[in-house]
């Protein structure tokens, strides 16, 4: 547009951007991106300093000078200096180290490398501070944290009789955050009281599972556009299913939510939850047939029968396949109903449902990654 307008007034502007994102190297990118700027620096800084005609060391120094100035040209901030330094490293690297090797790689790699290098530079370019850029890079790389810990209490001092309070006091000295999954209800609460650092309840016995709920809420809001005005069916093990308990606690905070609890008699939702719903005057029904209520649901939250919390194997075997969501049942549901599941699934959702566009349980996993990243960044105050 600028070139066209210039023409109308009799000016002839040179092209400033020439499809930069097709570039196969960073060197090529800077031949195509902001051409007037790079040619100015070439003609007025790089060449007067001797360009590449002096010694190789001098050549590198000239390049460094150009990129320090190009960085500062964009603004007086360290982020721009770092941005310039990044391109200096890439261009010097391509000139002296990997340029030839790069040219021999398949096109898709050259393109990918260039795009990645440029995208990293834009994070530095747009960040208000270097620390912000650092946090952004960590998030891009999956936070880059390290995990200390044990997946099984038998490999910790708990086996020797150490109390939760002491384990936590020790872990506080090593880590920045504790994420605790514990078979006993309330253990994270005890941990919180003895910890110097934030404690995330990653599931305590048959009680609660708040981070799964954050995941569920993000999934619902992202795929349904809202968290209000839904008839929510929760199906399966509502007695021991901690994800169910946490989700109910969270959803009551939103407007116009109706619950349908679908479970066998033995696995009904605990009384403390129905009491809470009564006090808050929130509508709920307890039923055993999934088919009967299917047409009314906006969301269906399926759960696994929690084998590990049963006192006897017989009861588990009798109840485990009580509900199996299959294609036939999905036919009864609304065309925009969502099926969620905290996973792992056992038999309660037949694999034939996986292709149904309403099956959201694997998308849910992806949202879980984002939510937990956000939670960790929040707790670290980054
Ligand atoms: C859930 C849990 O641990 O409560 N799973 C999970 O968080 N990955 C659900 C379950 O185990 O059934």
User: Which CATH architecture of the largest domain?
Assistant: 3-Layer(aba) Sandwich
Overall mean confidence score, pLDDT: 94
The helix/strand series, from N terminus to C terminus, equals HHHHHHHHEHEHEHEHEHEHHEH
| Sheet with most strands | 5 strands, parallel
Tell me the name of the CATH class of the largest domain: Alpha Beta
- Strand elements, count: 7
Helical run tally: 16
- Anisotropy-based shape: elongated
Structure characteristics:
two-stranded parallel sheet; 2 domains; alpha/beta; 16 helices; 7 strands; Rossmann fold; binds N-carbamoyl-L-aspartate; about 375 residues
Task: Give an overview of the whole structure.
This protein has 382 residues and is of the alpha/beta class. It folds into two domains: 15-142, no CATH class; 210-368, Rossmann fold. It contains 16 helices and seven strands. The chain has helices at 2-8, 26-32, 35-46, 56-74, 78-104, 107-126, 130-140, 164-174, 187-194, 210-224, 242-251, 271-279, 290-293, 313-319, 327-330, 361-379; strands at 178-182, 199-204, 231-235, 258-262, 284-287, 299-302, 338-340. The longest helix has 27 residues, at 78-104. Residues 203, 209, 212, 242-243, 304, 342-343 line the site of N-carbamoyl-L-aspartate.
């Amino acid at each position: 547009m600028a070139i066209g307008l210039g023409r109308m007034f009799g000016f002839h502007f040179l092209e400033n951007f020439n499809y930069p994102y097709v570039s196969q190297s960073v060197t090529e990118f800077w031949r195509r991106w902001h051409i007037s700027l790079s040619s100015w620096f070439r003609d007025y800084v790089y060449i007067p300093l001797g360009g590449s005609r002096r010694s190789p060391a001098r050549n590198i120094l000239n390049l460094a000078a150009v990129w320090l100035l190009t960085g500062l040209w964009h603004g007086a901030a360290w982020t721009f200096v770092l941005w310039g330094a990044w391109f200096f490293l890439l261009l010097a690297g391509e000139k002296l180290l990997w340029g030839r090797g790069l040219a021999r790689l398949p096109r898709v790699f050259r393109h990918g490398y260039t795009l990645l290098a440029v995208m990293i530079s834009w994070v530095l370019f747009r960040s208000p501070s270097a620390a912000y850029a650092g946090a952004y890079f960590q998030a891009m790389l999956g936070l880059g944290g390290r995990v200390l810990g044990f997946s099984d209490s038998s490999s910790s001092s708990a086996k020797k009789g150490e109390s939760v309070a002491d384990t936590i006091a020790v872990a506080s000295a090593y880590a920045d955050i504790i994420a605790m999954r514990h078979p006993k209800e309330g253990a994270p609460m005890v941990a919180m009281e003895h910890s110097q650092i934030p404690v995330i309840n990653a599931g305590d016995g048959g009680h609660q599972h708040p981070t799964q709920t954050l995941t569920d809420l993000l999934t619902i809001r992202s795929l349904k556009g809202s968290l209000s005005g839904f008839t929510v069916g929760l199906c399966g093990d509502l007695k021991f299913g901690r994800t169910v308990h946490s989700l109910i606690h969270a959803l009551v905070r939103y407007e116009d939510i109706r619950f349908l609890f679908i479970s066998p008699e033995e696995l009904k939702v605990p009384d403390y939850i129905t009491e809470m719903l009564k006090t808050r005057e929130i509508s709920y029904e307890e039923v055993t047939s999934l088919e009967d209520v299917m047409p009314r649901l906006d969301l269906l939250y399926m759960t696994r029968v929690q084998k590990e919390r049963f006192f006897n194997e017989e009861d588990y075997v009798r109840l485990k396949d009580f509900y199996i969501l299959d294609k036939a049942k999905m036919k009864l549901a609304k065309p925009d109903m969502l099926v969620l599941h905290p996973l792992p699934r056992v038999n309660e959702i037949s694999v034939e449902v996986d292709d149904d566009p309403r099956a959201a349980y694997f998308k849910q996993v992806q949202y879980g990654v984002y939510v937990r990243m956000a939670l960790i960044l929040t707790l670290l105050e980054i």
